[in-house]
Design goal:
mainly alpha
């Protein structure tokens, strides 16, 4: 589960960065929003996934509480 979460976030972050294309024909506000998204969102996604994995704890627990076995699969 931990590896799957990190893999999904890294693939999504890479996809967001690769699909970004600069455009001079759009208004400034639109370009600013797209640039900020391409610059900030992928690292924030990776950091939030890392924090989520740390909060999940070791195998079989989440924040100190016991989880069911199918949640680990």
């Amino acid at each position: 589960m931990h590896g799957g979460l990190i893999l999904v976030v890294v693939v999504t972050a890479c996809w967001l960065r690769w699909r970004w294309q600069p455009s001079d024909r759009q208004p400034w506000q639109h370009r600013w929003h797209h640039t900020l998204t391409a610059f900030c969102l992928p690292p924030l996604m990776v950091i939030s996934a890392a924090i989520a994995v740390l909060c999940m704890g070791h195998h079989g627990s989440m924040l100190g509480m016991r989880v069911l076995p199918y949640g680990c699969w």
